[in-house]
Design goal:
heterodimer; A: 367 residues; alpha+beta; 5-stranded antiparallel sheet; 25% helix; B: 282 residues; mainly alpha; 13 helices
């Protein structure tokens, strides 16, 4: 296995800039997820690591080896594609054996390795079938088996689960993660699905417009987003953003909006002091807003807002309430047992220990 | 409700009448040729080919096959000698060219492709004089190899165009997966792209083979010796100057069309199957 480093990767396609200076360090045996919306450059980054694209600028380093201009076959990598890319005219056995045959591995060794990979992916009974005789999930397993059979230094996966149905995706998600832990291969995984990223990645790199917005563990990304984009992209339903003004009063600093006024404790006041009189953005996740009287006992400081229920989504496990405060819609995630109706007046409490504060101009996090 | 059903039935009836009329009009000449080929010439002249009564015979087929001057048997051999390489050679070269056009960037690519399209749109008659002189200078006039060369060259343009369009539809990830696994360009082309293009190759082979087999014009211009006549020339020469044996001619025509029909029948499953089950996405 090997560690992977990207240094200042820039990629241009004609006049379009796909990547604007990507720096990324993936440790040996680590599972890193590139997460972002369509067109953010995550697949281009992966293809550059694979050697399927050459960067306009920057370096790709495996261990101590600069592989930037090496063709894919000299990088000792494997890749699983979104469409699986299994070869329709070859049986499953031949599909898995293909990379070994190219490397001219002895026949007995090929047979042993194919059987090992097939057993690991639980497709031993499918080796004699053609891909068109398999289900989507089985084809996906074939693609993964083909990728691991060569025991690559780096395993690259480009949205490998996005063509599967929801149930199978959940199952394959955990299986892929377990497999990666078992064979300890350095893995870089591309997805636009935040749940996939949060559940599978040791670390997540959130991308937007050809840049990495934040790299961190799933917990860091969720609890300490570096900017409004990451805060909004991670979490479902999306974080609520409310414009607030920093106001200096006799008893200290406050955040003032049309719906509430929050007196800031000294530590936070110190952080936002320089923005006095300016507008900032306060962020709070729907799960940190509680219907009045339903705040957990460990939430000590809250501020109350009133509104009228605009829309309710009863998901079973949760109830998503869209609350119209008169100046904006605030989304609240309550327990699935909580019941309310459209048009009802509702008081909610914002858990102040969980608020985030961002600059309005740069969208970077202050808190 | 009843009125609506009546309307649907009338529409169904009208479509069927039109389709059947076209089908019968289309096949009528072929039925005529088939009937003339299996009836004695005198009966055809007196009673017309559409009379089902009377005698039936295979004499016309035997005579057409073994005619000492213009026998279809020898024409068959010459036609196979010309048609098989004239299908394989351009298919092989054009497949390589089409893959390059489809997957690689190189200077003047667009202009080269436009040239291909121009060549495709040129009528055969335009090229026949320069081709005649060229073959003559190369010593290939009145040689089957000359005819193979001409047919191969003529087929290159359209086959390249056809296959390039097909290769464009093949998912690139399939090739990239092989590239990541360590395969080179030729390996990818011969082991993956060609097998996956079997439906297109089958269609191209059938069309090119039939085209070459049925060609009369080039064969007439570039072949002079009767022993080198291809089957289409042999059949044409069965018509005497003062007397036409329609039975013999019809039998010859049936022999000639038999091979293309067989080729289509054999390769049909591939191009009907098309892409189903061959490219897998999702």
């Amino acid at each position: 296995m090997v560690d992977v480093h990207l240094r200042g990767i820039v990629k241009k396609f004609g006049h379009t800039i796909a990547l604007r200076g990507i720096d990324l360090d993936v440790e040996d045996g680590e599972f890193v997820v590139l997460l972002g919306p369509s067109g953010c450059g995550k697949t281009t980054t992966l293809r550059i690591i694979a050697g399927l694209e050459k960067p306009t600028k920057g370096k790709v380093i495996f261990g101590n080896r600069d592989v930037t201009y090496l063709p894919p076959r000299e990088r000792n990598i494997s890749m699983v594609f979104q469409s699986y890319a299994v070869w329709p005219h070859m049986k499953v056995y031949d599909n898995i054996a293909f990379p070994l045959k190219i490397k001219k591995v002895p026949k007995e060794e090929i047979d042993r390795k194919v059987k090992w990979a097939a057993e690991l992916l639980q497709i031993s009974d499918l080796l004699d079938r053609y891909p068109h005789q398999l289900s989507g999930g089985q084809r996906q397993r074939v693609a993964v088996a083909r990728a691991i059979v060569v025991e690559p230094q780096v395993l690259l996966m480009d949205e490998p689960l996005s063509n599967l149905d929801a149930l199978l995706r959940v199952k394959m998600r955990s299986e892929l993660k377990k497999l990666q832990r078992r064979i300890k291969v350095t893995t870089i995984y591309v997805t636009h699905d935040q749940v996939e990223a949060m559940t599978m990645g040791d670390r997540i790199a959130v991308m937007k417009d050809g840049k990495i917005m934040q790299i961190g563990t799933p917990t860091e990304i969720y609890h300490k987003p570096a900017n409004m984009f990451v805060a909004g992209f991670i979490g479902s339903p999306q974080m609520n953003f409310i414009d607030v003004t920093v106001s200096e009063e006799a008893d200290g600093l406050s955040l003032v909006s049309e719906d509430f006024k929050i007196k800031l404790p000294p530590d936070i006041a110190e952080l936002v002091k320089q923005y006095t009189g300016k507008t900032l953005v306060m962020g709070i996740r729907p799960e940190h807003i509680y219907p009045e009287g339903f705040a957990p006992s460990n939430v000590k400081r809250t501020v109350k807002i009133s509104g009228v229920v605009d829309f309710v989504e009863a998901l079973g496990s949760d109830t998503i309430i869209h609350l119209n405060t008169g100046s904006r819609i605030i989304v609240v995630k309550a327990s699935g047992t909580y019941h309310t109706n459209i048009g009802e007046k509702l008081n909610v409490e914002l858990g102040l220990d969980k608020i985030h504060i961002f600059r309005k101009d740069t969208e970077e996090a202050i808190l | 409700m009843v009125r609506r059903r009546g309307k649907v039935f009338l529409k169904y009836l009208a479509i069927n009448i039109i389709v059947w009329t076209i089908a019968i009009l289309w096949t009528l000449p072929f039925i005529g040729v088939a009937m003339v080929s299996v009836k004695p010439f005198k009966e055809v002249v007196v009673n017309g080919w559409w009379t089902l009564t009377g005698h039936y015979t295979l004499k016309n087929f035997i005579d057409a096959w073994s005619n000492p001057v213009y026998g279809v048997g020898r024409g068959y051999t010459n036609s196979f000698i010309v048609a098989i390489p004239s299908t394989i050679i351009p298919l092989f070269i054009a497949a390589l060219a089409a893959y390059v056009f489809s997957r690689f960037s190189f200077p003047l690519k667009t202009w080269l492709f436009i040239t291909l399209l121009v060549i495709m749109s040129m009528p055969q008659q335009m090229s026949v004089v320069p081709l005649f002189f060229m073959l003559d200078r190369m010593g290939l006039y009145d040689q089957l190899s000359g005819l193979i060369l001409v047919h191969s060259a003529w087929g290159l343009a359209w086959i390249t165009f056809f296959l390039k369009n097909f290769f464009d539809t093949l998912p690139r990830e399939v090739e990239e997966a092989a590239r990541v696994d360590g395969a080179g360009d030729f390996h990818i082309f011969f082991r993956l792209v060609l097998p996956m293009s079997l439906p297109a190759i089958a269609s191209v082979s059938a069309i090119q083979f039939t085209w070459v087999w049925s060609d009369f014009f080039y064969a007439l211009v570039f072949i002079a010796s009767p022993e080198k006549y291809v089957v289409t020339l042999q059949v044409a020469n069965m018509r005497g100057q003062y007397f036409v044996d329609w039975g013999l001619l019809s039998a010859g025509a049936i022999f000639t069309m038999l091979v293309p029909l067989l080729v289509y029948a054999l390769l049909q499953k591939y191009y009907v199957r098309g892409m189903v089950g061959w490219t897998i996405k999702g």
